[in-house]
Write a structure and sequence with these properties.
Chain A contains twelve helices and no strands. Chain B is mainly α. The chains are: A mainly alpha, B mainly alpha.
């Protein structure tokens, strides 16, 4: 280490500040991220949720679908910490199984939505002119119909095909939410590309004979990645909410497969006498989404190049 | 200004045409189609089917069908509901005012509360008030609307009791108590829960925008100038800062219309509010295509018209915007 050879007096704050540019980008981002205590708490919450969803079903080997007529709507107790549902199934075990599906849908939807949005936004911002105006009009068009209305309509269309692979499972939900949620990312990436493409280094790359796709992927995209990462983090949470809303309304993942959303589907009918069936799955959603929102907020601060320390 | 408004209106027309075309195409994708109900009916003969096919205008090519359909939509003929056998336009027209009533009330509540909160949060940045309010905005933003509705029902309908009558504190659904002449108080009691749920949802966004907008303005040079020339802090904030910080909110309102419409769909479904969102949800469940497409078209038109209006209002309010 370079500091080891320096005298202690010189290891003042000033020196530390001078040494900083040498730390890796990853270390710098992590150091800044750690300062955002709520983001750190969010990271912890998400990690424990993911761990619970991954490990609990594996350790307990309790069938989340097995019904038990003797245990219908048991309030939370020591043996069933979150209580049981209308078919006598343990709510905690079902929450962990449901979390696997919900988180999977959230992440997969984010990948669809962000890659679509980035591609469209990058093309619009980079090529400009006609391509830009066509793509942006198309974005306006997707934004002009309220998302939930279209989600329900597409879910119904897929359901009426009576094709088992197209209806009821997580895959169609991922596709339809992904296909309808990219405009935000597209607008964001377009703005970034518009700003960066005017910089000198892009001109330099063009002068040295780089192809358009190389400029876009190797020169502009890495400089535009920070806001995309933030948007992607927030998108996972929004996708979890979209999935749960669809499933709650009966148009998402179909029972008996549990998700955080469809576990709430029967909750409305019985919430006067079994409120725990409505409270716990919802809390899981809120904790996951809140944690992701805080992580996104922390990342925004940590990744901002103009951040003042 | 007139030029700008005209240009924006002209830009909206292709968008509306594209939407109408998509809605028409989606209708074609739906299995069964308008003849499904008749084809399975043994009382209808093959000749009748052919005659019906012609009567419904299905014997011409698709693009002619689209033009005919568009013409009918523009003339106000939106088809007939397959469930109630009444014109779809009448069905939707009956429900639209209820949706507007609910969303306007919640929107106003959100606006009245969020503007002062956002301003105080920005002026006292990092105070306990600011921390509480930013946390509230974050949580509100992370709550699924439907779950918030369920929790409200558990608390205010199932758990809390009215101290006088012993019944539930607030009704769990509907616009007024059925079977009685609705009084003002009764209507208000039914409005409280759905309007609050929707309002909290918008509040979260508004507070964040208002706070960010105010912080932005507070760092501008003209605020320093206003302070330097010795104005009282109150005058600096109210006369110089707030006026400019509220402006961006106009744009947010336009962007938020689709979100608000999605929110009303959920709220209306949970609280059995007889509005357009619930009508759409029911029409999807029952396969009532005319109503479904009508609501879809109307909500898209609403989004575009409100977007246009807010843009024009913004350009009108902010003299820095150039119309070119």
């Amino acid at each position: 280490m370079a500091q080891a050879s320096l005298s202690p007096q010189l290891l003042s704050d000033e020196w530390e500040a001078r040494m900083r540019p040498q730390e890796s980008l990853r270390a710098k981002v992590w150091r800044r991220f750690r300062k955002h205590r709520l983001a750190l708490a969010g990271l912890l919450a998400i990690a424990s949720l993911v761990l619970a969803c991954a490990l609990v079903p594996w350790i307990t080997r309790y069938d989340p679908l097995k019904t038990n007529v003797d245990l219908i709507r048991e309030p939370p107790s020591v043996s069933h910490i979150f209580g049981t549902d209308e078919l006598g199934r343990d709510l905690f075990i079902r929450l962990c199984h449901g979390g696997r599906v919900s988180i999977l849908i959230g992440v997969a939807t984010m990948l669809v939505s962000i890659s679509l949005g980035t591609t469209i936004g990058a093309c619009a911002g980079f090529y400009g002119k006609r391509i830009d105006s066509v793509l942006m009009r198309f974005t306006d068009f997707v934004l002009s119909v309220p998302q939930l209305f279209l989600l329900l309509l597409f879910a119904q269309l897929l359901r009426s095909t009576n094709n088992p692979t197209l209806s009821g499972g997580p895959l169609p939900i991922i596709v339809i939410i992904g296909l309808l949620s990219w405009p935000g990312a597209a607008r964001l990436v377009r703005g970034q590309f518009l700003a960066i493409k005017a910089k000198e280094f892009v001109e330099g790359a063009r002068m040295s004979g780089c192809s358009n796709s190389r400029i876009m992927l190797r020169h502009i995209l890495p400089n535009a990645i920070s806001p995309i990462v933030v948007a992607a983090t927030l998108r996972v949470g929004q996708a979890i909410i979209s999935e749960s809303t669809l499933s709650f309304l009966g148009f998402g993942v179909q029972p008996p497969t549990p998700t955080w959303g469809n576990m709430l589907k029967n909750a409305q009918a019985q919430m006067t006498y079994a409120p725990w069936t409505a409270i716990f799955p919802g809390l899981a959603i809120v904790i996951a989404v809140l944690a992701l929102n805080y992580i996104g907020d922390g990342l925004r601060d940590a990744l901002d190049p103009h951040h003042v320390e | 200004m007139t030029h700008y408004v005209m240009r924006r209106i002209l830009q909206a027309i292709p968008l509306l045409l594209l939407i109408s075309f998509t809605v028409f195409m989606l209708m074609q994708l739906i299995p069964g189609g308008p003849m499904a109900a008749y084809e399975n009916n043994p009382d209808i003969s093959a000749e009748d089917l052919v005659r019906l096919h012609e009567e419904l205008g299905l014997n011409v090519p698709k693009h002619i069908q689209y033009i005919n359909w568009l013409g009918a939509v523009l003339r106000g003929d939106w088809g007939t509901s397959q469930i109630t056998r009444r014109p779809a336009l009448v069905e939707i027209g009956e429900k639209l005012p209820n949706t507007l009533y609910l969303s306007m009330v919640s929107f106003l509540i959100a606006l009245i509360i969020s503007i002062p909160i956002g301003i105080i949060s920005a002026v006292r940045q990092y105070s306990w008030f600011d921390h509480v309010m930013t946390t509230f905005a974050f949580v509100g933003h992370s709550l699924p609307v439907f779950w918030m509705g369920l929790i409200f029902i558990i608390i205010f309908h199932a758990t809390l009791k009215n101290p006088i009558t012993g019944g539930p504190l607030l009704p769990g659904g509907g616009m007024y108590t059925l079977g009685s002449q609705p009084t003002m108080a009764d209507r208000l009691r039914h409005l409280i829960m759905p309007a609050s749920v929707l309002a909290i949802y918008s509040l979260a966004t508004h507070i964040r925008y208002m706070r960010a907008g105010m912080l932005d303005v507070l760092h501008q040079d003209y605020i320093r100038t206003a302070r330097a020339k010795g104005l009282r802090e109150r005058a600096v904030l109210l006369r110089h800062a707030v006026k400019n910080a509220v402006l961006p909110l106009v744009t947010i309102i336009g962007l938020e219309i689709p979100v608000l419409l999605s929110g009303t769909l959920i709220t209306e479904t949970i609280f059995s509010w007889p509005g357009m969102g619930r009508l759409f949800f029911n029409s999807i469940e029952r396969g009532d295509y005319a109503v479904m497409m009508g609501v879809l078209m109307l909500s898209a038109v609403m989004v575009i018209v409100f977007g246009l209006l807010t843009d024009i209002v913004y350009a009108f309010l902010d003299p820095r915007i150039r119309f070119d």
